[in-house]
Amino acid sequence: LLTQIANTKQALLNHAIETGPSFVTSSPSQEQQACEANIFQVCPTKPYEDMNYVGRGLIITGLVLFAIQAFLSVLLIVWTVLYRRRNIIKMSQPEFLVLIAFGCLVMSLSIPPLAVQGAYRYVQDPISGEQRTDMPNGAIARVDAACMAAPWLAGLGFVLVFSALSAKIWRAKRIFDGAVRFQRETVHAKDMLLIMVVMFIVEVALLLSWQLVSPLRWEREVTSWDENGYPTESIGACRSDKALAFVVPLLSFKGLCLLYALYLCYITRKVPSDLTEQKWISFSI
Ranges for the G-protein coupled receptors family 3 profile domain (predicted)? Predict the structure, then answer.
């Protein structure tokens, strides 16, 4: 049998190992089959590869902080709804308080996707360690979704919070300006919703353009190899060729939102605290 194997350079795919009264059969691994197909070659051992995954401790810390933020947001929403008929809550505009708490909840939802990570986009060849572009890794689709989920949730949550804050201060400004002129000023809900809708549309348009043109995708890059060409260390991250073209407008828009909110806080600094929490809003911004 050994002579035949040496002459034909073929290998046994299933080995029968005699252990006494019974036989144990098992199929060799792909690495072993490759070694047997090249009987007279010494097969190198594939080394351990450091994938540089985010540490478990950091992930747990992030999820705990997310749970705390989510719990507080839900608690404040419930509390506001239960006590919405009290004068202090009425004057604080409970509908906007709920929107602010809900926006904080949405922003906190961007934390769990950051913990999603994966290996290579394509299945690695068990012998050479190279990626086989004809065999995509099905698990990467979940990581790709998480890559874009984070900016979507963070962006939409931000817009909900700051559009509600801006509308809240703008409403108080309109009422106070009318009182100064000894005129009764009526501010309808649709007037305040216009501010929120405009900010929301701009944010969605920017995020949707990013999603359609050049979304973030999970990519893993090998940073070191051993003497046999096997990868020994790699780094994975969400990447996009044109990310900067969308990140800059998104950050600029958020910066303008912050400046507008600060401007409203400044011009309403003399409004009585019963009408607006200008000091606390300015501090939070």
Answer: 145-285
CB 146, CB 242: distance < 8 Å: no
CB neighbour list of residue 51: distance below 8 Å, 6 or more residues apart: 119, 220, 234, 236
Instruction: Report pLDDT digits (tens) over 157-172.
Output: 999 988 888 777 777 6
pLDDT in tens, 197-211: 888 999 999 999 999
CA distance 232 to 222: 8
pLDDT digits (tens, 9 = 90+) for 216-244: 999 998 888 887 778 889 999 999 988 99
Of residues 168, 170, 166, the one with CA closest to residue 199: 166
The partner residues of 219 in beta bridges, in order of sequence, read 237
DSSP state, residue 13? S
Q: Do 159 and 31 belong together in one domain? A: no
**Same-domain pairing of 92 and 25:** no
Alpha-carbon span 108 to 128, nearest angstrom: 42
Note whether 216 and 148 are within 8 A (CB): yes
- Over residues 260-277, the mean pLDDT reads 69
DSSP per-residue codes, 122-165:
EEEPTTT--EEEEEE-TTHHHHHHHHHHHHHHHHHHHHHHHHHH
| pLDDT higher than threshold 70 for residue 59 | yes
> Of 12, 27, 43, which residue sits at a domain end?
43
For the chain, the residue count is 285
Report angle CA 123, 29, 125 to the nearest 5 degrees: 20
What is the Cα–Cα distance from 120 to 234, expressed in whole angstroms? 10
pLDDT digits (tens, 9 = 90+) for 125-135: 665 666 666 67
**Domain of 103, in residue numbers:** 44-284
Is the pLDDT at 102 greater than 70? The verdict is: yes
